[in-house]
Design a protein that fits this description.
The strands form 2 sheets. The chain has a 4-stranded mixed sheet with strand order 2-1-3-4. The protein is an alpha+beta fold. Helices cover 52% and strands 7% of the residues.
């Protein structure tokens, strides 16, 4: 008897958006035997492997391979489709384990609906997910690889990311060499992707390989490259991130994005905020007020997110408790959830 087809999540353990997909599996109560987890090692460039590119031509994780509805029985031959956008993956996982779903499940865990029931709440979720968190201004990878605004932090960044970036460079050069020699056959579109990614990596590597050198020892081209790097980093951290955090504070209700209701937007915010806090020097064990203060100080220039949140109980009792940032309240609420403790059992990333 054939086994019922299972979903397969291709992910990387230190990926922001992979964490979001893993949150969804945990929050929806899927059983461990209902899906497979397969690691795609981004640090080694495995996402550029031609085999993976046949699943996801954008070379991104998470990627969820799911069986078509008409193959969800033991006597059918499994046929699959790939979901490659984080938002689509989370929405699929939310709808596929519910009272109205035809998906077979072996788990007896609750399956709370994460998608809002009202148009207004759905609109707020869409703004937070699509227009804020997944915008270019909020890109967590830019924040990661541009996390240096002076010579000292550049040396630290190089120590952290240079080995992995060289592995990616080596992988891409290898794939292109094999394609040129004819040992592997790929489309021109795939070659163009490899060249585009390699060029982006080379631009960063050009700065990082000289990170240990003081500016006086750099030639003119290297000085220009370092100056351009710092300018981009300041734009990302001191301008774009300020805007993103301010927008989030405006759209959120608190303590979760929609108030007391935990929703689909909270999955995305949890993964994204964990990365920002990590880069700012925060840890998984610190409370919301502490991590928000660290992020503010890391951004610099006296930036502060609004302190405009009080719990419903405090408001009802007309107590004079000091207001806190909505992101602080969110952090305190999210870190108590079992899904958070499981995904970040070894710390933030």
């Amino acid at each position: 008897m054939a086994a019922v087809p299972k979903a397969v999540l291709y992910y990387y353990p230190a990926s922001v958006w992979s964490a979001v997909a893993r949150f969804a599996f945990e929050e929806k109560g899927y059983g461990q035997d209902e899906f497979d987890l397969r690691i795609v090692d981004l640090s080694k460039g495995e996402n550029y492997d031609p085999t993976f590119l046949r699943l996801n031509s954008k070379a991104t994780v998470p990627t969820l391979l799911v069986p078509y509805e008409d193959s969800l029985s033991e006597d059918s031959q499994g046929r699959y489709k790939a979901l490659t956008e984080t938002a689509a993956i989370v929405e699929f996982l939310d709808k596929s384990r519910s009272a109205n779903s035809r998906t077979q499940t072996t788990s007896a865990a609750p399956a709370p609906a994460l998608t809002p029931a009202t148009i207004a709440a759905t609109t707020t979720c869409k703004i937070i997910i699509d227009e804020i968190l997944h915008s270019e201004q909020a890109d967590p990878n830019i924040l990661r690889y541009k996390n240096a605004r002076d010579d000292a932090s550049l040396r630290k960044l190089a120590e952290e990311v240079l080995p992995n970036m060289k592995q990616k460079q080596q992988a891409l050069n290898g794939y292109l060499s094999q394609a040129d020699s004819g040992s592997i056959r790929v489309s021109e579109k795939v070659k163009a992707l490899w060249k585009e990614k390699l060029e982006a990596i080379n631009l960063i590597l050009a700065v990082l390989v000289d990170a240990a050198k003081p500016e006086l020892q750099l030639d003119e081209k290297a000085k220009e490259d370092r100056s351009a790097f710092f300018k981009t980093a300041r734009q990302a951290w001191e301008t774009n991130l300020k805007l993103v955090l301010t927008q989030l504070s405006k759209e959120m209700v608190g303590p979760y994005t929609l108030g007391d209701q935990y929703s689909i937007a909270d999955l995305h915010l949890a993964g994204w905020l964990a990365r920002v806090v990590k880069l700012a020097g925060g840890t998984v064990d610190e409370d919301g007020s502490t991590v928000v203060k660290k992020v503010e100080e890391y951004i610099g220039d006296g930036f502060k997110v609004p302190r405009d949140f009080q719990t419903e109980q405090v408001r009802r009792e007309n107590a004079k408790e000091e207001k806190q940032a909505k992101l602080s309240a969110f952090w305190d609420a999210i870190r108590e959830r079992p899904s958070w403790r499981k995904v970040y059992v070894d710390g933030l990333y």
